[in-house]
Specification:
The complex is a heterotrimer of chains A (233), B (188) and C (475).
Chain A lengths: L1 H30 L25 E3 L15 H5 L5 E7 L6 E9 L8 H5 L5 E3 L14 E2 L1 H4 L3 H10 L14 H9 L6 H4 L8 H4 L1 H5 L1 H10 L10
Antiparallel strand pairs in A: 1-4, 2-3, 3-5
Chain B lengths: L1 H10 L3 H22 L3 H21 L3 H26 L3 H4 L5 H23 L14 H10 L3 H22 L4 H10 L1
Chain C lengths: L16 H39 L5 H39 L15 H11 L10 H18 L1 H7 L14 H10 L1 H11 L3 H32 L4 H7 L16 H12 L5 H8 L4 H28 L11 H4 L9 H25 L18 H21 L5 H27 L5 H26 L8
The chains are: A alpha+beta (233), B mainly alpha (188), C mainly alpha (475).
The complex binds iron/sulfur cluster (2 copies).
């Protein structure tokens, strides 16, 4: 008899304990209502990416003069594990220098490892913050020189954001400095410090506010036609 | 119910008879399917259909409580358990088709005939008291009162019988001692 | 929030107000749409057409208007179910998003308000596949058997939640709650049938689990409601609803009417016009302290019964934490794995409708149906001094609507509003539970049902039967 009463009391205790735990759980979950969502409102709001985000590849130009920075050294082509870079260059007979004719990157093959950007001696090839490259065919994923080349403003933004030393303007007497630079820093670690730009970066490149939101705007512009992006639940 | 009568008067047909035939159209083919369907589980489902139609019959006889009890206990509860038992016991039963011996067939026929005759005679006998009274709204209360006054004894007997059946079922379902299980497994 | 007992500042209560506001606006607008639509159909069918027919003179006008009136409850349910299911799915998704710190569907329509409408269209347009080896007849019948009872089962509740509006009196059956229970026991047949007919092992397992679960949990569910009927002395939902009118203390969740005496006594004390406090108390609690103990026991019992009912109902309609029949991690999607297109839509519809019906039963049987929770003596609107000027001020507008067009029926209107509020609060609670509790294991489920809930309800049944004797109910 006492046994029965004891076990009944125990059972009640057990049940109350369980109920208390359930109540705690419900409370915790209910309290979550007051906290802001942690999800990104992605298609409505472009995410804020760090400058070293490894997105679409692009070729920079000199932010000041607008000339192409690639010296056709083919280092990127060689280092790429996926062999997705294809450079067409021609040795000009007059200057005895390589002239870039076409530069193709197959973004369908690229795995965004960033190795090509590490080896590039002139900081020409870079990873941009753009990641919306969805397309309808495989062939349209192969970007050519025109599609890869950034504008002057974009280049300025990335040079500032990634803290890359600004390129020296190409001297009239060519060859020597560029080749020297290429030889001077074969390794990636040397990159930030190897060639200290003699000129401080111009104010326009450093001013972040005006240029900083450019890519974001670009993202938005790109977004609008593709309404079939899956809805974010 | 008033709407029912209005409709009856207007349409010049007996709506109750109409509903009766409709239910019969459901119940009788379902009953035949229960007998003749090879897939035994499907027969079980047809049995649910039969009971459902019978529940409808109770409804047009204005025995609401009985109809609902029929629905809840027979249509859903018991038949479902039977169907599940069938699913769990012998899934290949439907494929094999049990061969029936001649003698078994004969005895089955005799039993069926006797059973049929009994029910037929019972149904055709004239002693069914029919009442034209409208259902009492206190119907349920009256059933309850009758169950524990006039019919208290049968009610108790029924519950004792159920209890016995329950205990029997538990006894049957209780796990055999381990060595017995191995013996049975060995035999098969 | 709390990781090691500390509250990170700015995180807690930091204001998710925008999302909450969106949720509220979405819910309110959907509810308005639903109930305006439903009442519009009822009014057109049950009042407007007969009103027009009354003036016309062709010979079967009378019978036609009778038929229209008789069809009104069915029409109301048929209009209500699909729209309501759409809203409930949306509400569930948005509320779960709130609980899990997400945004929820927000693309289709303003703030995603039309998401489920679009989903419904998509489901209806999808291809309807019957798998090879399936039993086509049973496969088609299963969703129908699953869905049909929720149409018919809801009918008696209509009379209870509309304060016995004359349009819905026809569905006020003397066997009310028994009818609802019988109807709600049928869907499990549909589940087993669909599971078996799909010719798929996951479906079959889902169906079997569902049957086992429904049969086990129906017992405590029915026992808890039967105990309430024992207290009420009737099976008729409308009288049960009426018995509970007059404020929180009269509701079945607080003693099933054991506190009515207290309520009346306090009312007498406050108004100081009726019988004195002690006299009323004596009339209701004739045995002194024994009666008070009885009342206390009854209160405790009914609160537990309410809990048991909620648990049993949750299991009966296969909601988390009892959603073993469709446990994704083991059974893909359970009994509806093989269903697609419109048949799947019907399963989905019925599931949410069942949730709604179960909540409505809880409101009618435990939470006072369409009754304002404020006791009458506390409710300012129940005093003529407050009520009459208000009525007078509004009368020019309302009298046309109420008396000429019968578009608004005040008792029904207020009752319906309260029922809507209470029912959707319960549904919201169900969603909260879904967001919180993990799924049971099958053996835990069976243990809990057979070894805990059923004994508890049986003990309570006996307790209530005795405690009932020491108090006068519904004098
Ligand atoms: S990121 Fe990697 S894979 Fe892509 S082009 Fe550069 S080296 Fe090749
Ligand atoms: S490594 Fe840089 S400079 Fe060399 S080819 Fe590639 S992009 Fe041009």
């Amino acid at each position: 008899m006492f046994n029965l009463i004891g076990s009944a009391i125990n059972g009640v205790k057990h049940a109350l304990g369980g109920l208390y735990q359930v109540k705690r759980g419900l409370e915790t979950v209910a309290m979550h209502t007051w906290r802001e969502p942690t999800t990104e409102a992605y298609p409505d709001k472009a995410p804020e990416l760090p400058p070293h985000f490894r997105g679409r590849l692009a070729l920079t130009v000199n932010p000041e003069t607008g000339e192409n920075l690639c010296i056709s050294c083919r280092q990127c082509e060689r280092v790429c594990p996926d062999k997705c870079i294809e450079i067409t260059a021609n040795k000009s007979t007059e200057t005895n220098k390589l002239e870039l004719i076409d530069f193709k990157i197959d973004h369908g093959l690229c795995m965004f490892c960033g190795l090509c950007t590490e080896v590039c001696p002139t900081y020409c090839i870079i990873n941009t913050n753009d990641f919306e490259m969805a397309d309808y065919t495989r062939s349209s994923l192969i970007y050519d020189l025109k599609k890869l080349t950034l504008t002057q403003e974009e280049s300025a933004y990335y040079f500032a954001a990634k803290e890359m030393p600004l390129p020296k303007p190409k001297p009239a007497k060519p060859a020597a400095p560029a080749a020297g630079a290429a030889a001077a820093k074969p390794a990636a670690e040397a990159k930030p410090t190897a060639t200290v730009s003699p000129k401080p970066a111009p104010e326009s490149a450093k001013a972040p506010e005006t240029t900083a939101d450019k890519p974001a705007k670009e993202v938005e512009k790109k977004e609008s036609p593709s309404t079939d992006t899956p809805s974010v639940n | 119910m008033e709407q029912f009568e209005l409709l009856t008067n207007w349409a010049q047909v007996n709506v109750e008879a109409f509903v009766l035939y409709a239910l019969a159209i459901i119940a009788i083919p379902c009953a035949f399917c229960v007998l003749f369907d090879r897939a035994i589980i499907r027969s079980g489902f047809f049995l649910i259909g039969v009971f459902g139609a019978v529940c409808g019959l109770f409804l047009i006889l204005q025995a609401q409580f009985l109809a609902l009890a029929q629905l809840m206990i027979y249509t859903v509860g018991i038949t479902l358990v039977v169907v599940i038992a069938l699913m769990l016991t012998n899934p290949r039963l439907e494929k094999e088709g049990v061969a029936v011996e001649g003698r078994e067939r004969f005895s089955g026929l005799v039993i069926a005939t006797v059973f049929f005759l009994t029910i037929y005679c019972a149904l055709r006998s004239e002693s069914w008291p029919l009442s034209s009274l409208r259902m009492n709204p206190e119907n349920v209360k009256q059933i309850g009162a009758a169950l524990i006054t006039t019919y208290a004894l049968p009610f108790e007997f029924a519950s004792v019988l159920l209890l016995a059946a329950l205990m029997g079922a538990i006894l049957l379902a209780k796990a055999e001692p381990k060595n017995d299980v191995s013996k049975i497994a060995g035999e098969n | 929030m709390k990781i090691d007992g500390t509250v990170v500042r700015g995180d807690h209560f930091s204001g998710n107000i925008a999302e909450i506001r969106k949720f509220a606006v979405m819910s309110l607008s959907w509810l308005t749409v639903i109930f305006v639509a439903v009442w519009g159909v009822c009014w057109a069918l049950g009042i407007f057409i007969p009103m027009c027919l009354a003036n016309s003179s062709f010979d079967f006008a009378a019978i036609l208007s009778e038929v229209c009136k008789a069809l009104t409850p069915i029409a109301a349910v048929l209009v209500f179910i699909p729209i309501n299911a759409m809203f409930m799915v949306l509400m569930e998704r948005r509320a779960l998003a709130l609980f899990t710190r997400r945004n929820g569907p927000n693309r289709v329509g303003p703030d995603g308000a039309l998401q489920t409408a679009a989903d419904a269209v998509k489901l209806l347009l999808k291809e309807d596949i019957t798998p090879t080896g399936a039993d086509a007849l049973m496969f088609t019948l299963a969703p129908i058997i699953f869905f049909a009872p929720s149409i018919f089962g809801a009918l008696p509740l209509l009379a209870a939640v509309t304060n016995n509006h004359k349009l819905f009196q026809i569905v006020d059956l003397p066997t009310g709650i028994f009818y609802v229970l019988a109807a709600s026991s049928v869907p499990v047949v549909g589940i087993v049938m669909g599971g078996w007919a799909s010719n798929n092992k996951y479906s079959l397992m889902g169906g079997l689990r569902s049957a086992a679960q429904a049969i086990s949990y129906e017992i405590p569910l029915v026992l808890s409601l039967v105990t309430i009927c024992l207290l009420a002395g009737t099976l008729d939902v409308v009288s049960i609803a009426y018995q509970q009118s007059g404020g929180l203390l009269n509701w079945n969740i607080l003693g099933g009417g054991a506190l009515i005496g207290l309520n009346k006594a306090i009312a007498a004390l406050v108004s100081s016009s009726g019988a004195p406090f002690a006299e009323v108390m004596n009339a209701y609690y004739p045995y002194g302290w024994l009666s008070f103990v009885g009342a206390a026991v009854l209160c405790m019992c009914t609160v537990i019964l309410f809990g048991v009912y909620l648990i049993g109902a949750c299991a009966e309609i296969n909601r988390i934490p009892f959603d073993l029949p469709e446990a994704e991690s083991e059974l893909v999607s359970g009994y509806n794995t093989e269903y697609s297109g419109i048949k799947f839509a019907i399963f989905f519809l019925a599931e949410f409708t069942n949730l709604f019906i179960v909540s409505t039963i809880a409101v009618v049987m435990f939470l006072g149906s369409g009754d304002c929770p404020l006791p009458t003596w506390l409710n300012p609107l129940s005093y003529p001094a407050v009520y009459e000027p208000l009525a007078k001020a509004l009368s020019p507008v309302l009298s046309v609507l109420i008396n000429d067009l019968h578009l608004i029926n005040p008792p029904t209107f207020w009752a319906a509003l309260w029922v809507i509020f209470k029912t959707y609060s319960l549904i919201f609670f169900a969603i909260l539970v879904r967001g919180t509790l993990p799924r049971f294991r099958i053996d835990q489920l069976m243990d809990f049902g057979w070894k805990r809930l059923i004994p508890i309800t049986l003990v309570i049944f006996v307790l209530v039967a005795f405690a009932r004797g020491v108090i006068n109910f519904h004098v």
